[in-house]
Amino acid sequence: MPDPSRDGVVITVNAEDVTPTVVEMIERGVRAALSNEGASQAEVSVTLLDDSGIEKMNATYLDRDRPTDVIAFSLGGPGDVLGDVYIGFAQAERQSAEHGEAIGIELLRLAIHGTLHVLGYDHPDGPERWDSSMFSLQERLLAEVLDAA
What we know:
Helix content is 48%, strand content 18%. It has 149 residues and is of the alpha/beta class.
């Protein structure tokens, strides 16, 4: 169980079948995104789901009937960082294979992406999303976390 007294940030990772190293990477990614925004008090939960689970969430909350890589919900009010991030593990595996990267790196990227959504960031749909300021920030934070590892 995370220790909230450590620094006011509580990160919970709900994941089966991933190594403790991958869980630690996910936690570091969430912490990097929060730190970038100066969030000293926060609670973020990250849950890895199979295709069926993430597809159900995508259909229910976003009216899209397909698996996706990440869905995030900001549950806090103004100045209150509280959120849930759901990562489609099988989709992350497919994306990591497409990019020739380890699954841990893709999970780290998606944890950062979801946390940025919790913090209020958004991006356009379609190809222009890759050029958005949110994606630039995501990739910068990803590189920083990987460099620090």
